[in-house]
Amino acid sequence: MTDAYTALLDHSRETSALGHVAGRLGWDQETMMPRGAAEQRGEEMAAMTAVLHARRTDPRLSEWLAEIDDSALDPVGQAVLRHTRRSHERATRVPARLASEIARVTSVAQGIWAEARAKDDFQAFAPTLKEVLSLKREEGAALADGADVYDALLADYEPGTTAAEIATIFDAMRPRLVALRERVLGQPEPDGLSGTYDEAAQMKLSRHVARAFGYDMSRGRVDKAVHPFSSGSGNDVRITTRTDPADPFNCLYSTIHEVGHAAYEQNIDQAYLFTPLGQGVSMGVHESQSRIYENQLGRSRPFTGWLFEQLRDTFGEIGVADAEAFYRAVNRVRKGYIRTEADELQYNLHIMLRFDLERQLISRALEVSDLEDAWNTRFETDFGYPVDRPAHGVLQDVHWSVGLFGYFPTYALGNVYAGCLNEALRQAVPDLESALAAGDPSPATDWLRGALQTHGGLREPRDTIEAACGFAPHEGPLMDYLEAKFSELYGL
Amino acid sequence: MTDAYTALLDHSRETSALGHVAGRLGWDQETMMPRGAAEQRGEEMAAMTAVLHARRTDPRLSEWLAEIDDSALDPVGQAVLRHTRRSHERATRVPARLASEIARVTSVAQGIWAEARAKDDFQAFAPTLKEVLSLKREEGAALADGADVYDALLADYEPGTTAAEIATIFDAMRPRLVALRERVLGQPEPDGLSGTYDEAAQMKLSRHVARAFGYDMSRGRVDKAVHPFSSGSGNDVRITTRTDPADPFNCLYSTIHEVGHAAYEQNIDQAYLFTPLGQGVSMGVHESQSRIYENQLGRSRPFTGWLFEQLRDTFGEIGVADAEAFYRAVNRVRKGYIRTEADELQYNLHIMLRFDLERQLISRALEVSDLEDAWNTRFETDFGYPVDRPAHGVLQDVHWSVGLFGYFPTYALGNVYAGCLNEALRQAVPDLESALAAGDPSPATDWLRGALQTHGGLREPRDTIEAACGFAPHEGPLMDYLEAKFSELYGL
């Protein structure tokens, strides 16, 4: 190790620790913070952001990066360099004036969006969205430095993957999803659960399930929050979930989803702690973990068979007669407008709509004034019925208001990656079904830990999936899985 | 305002915000953090400490401080300068090598102390304490820059007050306290409570009492922790308390005590938020608030009369017949070894013992090898019976293990200040008793807010008390109060 590399590692270590602190503050804000502290917290967070930005743009990083000979380093060192170089480059490319303007505008925009959604009035949000979009176009151009602007924004969430690559995947999926969706919705709708479910008992069962999926409670904790999330890395990875007395699936599947994210963070090689490799490598890879835990494992027939017994033992009569009816209830496909409430099948169509529209917004092929029409037209094309109100359409997601352009596609990319991993997993663990039927997903989560999670940021996102699966990721496995599952379920 | 002063204020604002973040992290560590995160958190805290240290030693501060003409500023500006100059001076005087050595040694020492206490073996702790003491002597010498070393350490907790001033006060108190203690303990011991107290009901009543004492729950929260504490400033001030099913006083009076600290922080003028004036001015002044809330108000006859009815309504039979017997139970004086369990009367004797011993340790008049003997001799002199085991004597407090030399006297100084404030309060609010008898301490807490709390760090600690009371603080009011209260209670 050269002196420059040692200095860079020390610097990176402290930056990483401060990043953890900012993350803990974010968790506190969503779970524990008294409501009267919001404004004060804004200033505290801004101070942390300024500290982190100053570290990422530290001129000494340029010197060290110039001095170090990458080829003399081992793969871990090379990965550290790759992450550090990228983060430094991105932080220095965006002028401070623009970064603080984006922070200022988006902090206000979220409130305006929420109000517009409550009033079902896109026009009340449109001027603000125009402003956010204009700033993000400017930021994207600064980051792109002559290359594709949308790709530059995407790189914050899915580095090393281009929009064109994603579009190729999505374009192959879309007709198959539209067709499958149409066939499924032509069939009679299965029954859902009925009854009321004690919320403390839901939380207790969810904690049990979280542990079964490998969540280490001694290095995490479960709280309730309005929007479930996972937060933290290494030995302090916390999740939140929520309860609905009429719907135990809300709590259970939110928990399993967040455990997927959290287990990924907890299982990264401890040697990478406080290095750029010590956290999930991208949003898409992260989502692949939450999705395979939630869907390919958690919504599988054998696991739902076990879960049915648990629910019956805990709550008595739940409104479905047997494990098969329960499996149908878990995987019920229904018409709906809202992305976050969508099933495995339709979810991806929601994402593709947003991906195509936001690419057009960034490239100026679409302007905010035409966005609502574009949304409504596309929705009716893919879903077969019109949006009934803006809150169910163009106003439903917070993302654009806070400037998250380039984030949406990572959700569906995560599904595609989960499909690939599921195929490899089933090959690697042939007797998985019997473990799942006993409520034990550990053979699957063990495989995921060794094949993927432990490596953290060692490889680029796509390479992370390829190394785990043994083949380059593509949409085939996910589509085959969805078509087989729902054809069988709905007797198509 | 000059440019230099504006720059200094901006810098101070961000430093203060980062200080808040570090405080929130400390709160999390004691309340929410999963146990497996301890080591990782240590590194995160160290990174925050390094950031704060770098800001406090920022060479630009020296330039701004040299450039600003204090006399051209208003009293607020002058106070900001005084705090900033002191903090900058102290941070720059301690060599980085020494600061990090103290951090390293004390982080390990606490564990060694805890183990030694569990094993009742002072020798197991002595070598570590020697090391801590030696480092703190070195730090004190660096801070003192030729002046008194103990005073230099004291200034971290009680700036502007010397050990000689405190010794004068304590020396006047000690014989009166020893004499009063002896007379009280010659009387029959009043009955305590009996029964079992539902912990949720204790917490509910404590929250009610916290609100009655002016704690703003919309800018705070109450959680349970092993050691009750208050944390934060401005609009996010959290407290913790604890419950004991056999002893509702533990929860109630811990809560009132912490509310005293928290209300002080919440009530500071909002204009001082994110300046050095936006937090309690010293440990002694802080403790004066917690103590007057807890003792002069919370343990007063009228308030305990109201509290007796509440406890009876909530828990039924509690083992004492009437309000008078309850008042005696609340204020019961008993033999004991432990500072944190001591009553209002004996508490100060515990502090004086520690103050005298730690001054001698710092001045090298006493060495660690002789500390246990010195403790035991002094204890028997003041309390009249010997220490039965080290865990009840020299090993009982965590403070010295983590290097807190100079901290102990602020507890008793807080009591002295509370005595002064109580005298002024009774003059200012003559009809206080009837409000307290109705469970409403707000006339007292309102007066304290206006006379003291709102001013935050505007004045030096002693001047803060003097401005509120209208006279220079001295031990007279506390001693008169204690002698009157306990003479009446015990029929002396």
UniProtKB/TrEMBL annotation, chains A, B:
Protein name as it appears in the record: Metal-dependent carboxypeptidase
EC number, UniProt record: 3.4.17.19
The protein's job, in short, is: Broad specificity carboxypetidase that releases amino acids sequentially from the C-terminus, including neutral, aromatic, polar and basic residues.
Q: Which PROSITE patterns match?
A: PEPTIDASE_M32 (PS52034)
Catalytic activity as recorded in UniProt:
Release of a C-terminal amino acid with broad specificity, except for -Pro
Task: Give the EC class as a word.
Answer: hydrolase
Gene3D superfamilies membership: 1.10.1370.30
Which keywords annotate this record?
Carboxypeptidase, Hydrolase, Metal-binding, Metalloprotease, Protease
Record GO terms (molecular function): carboxypeptidase activity
Q: Output the InterPro entries linked to this UniProt entry.
A: Peptidase_M32_Taq
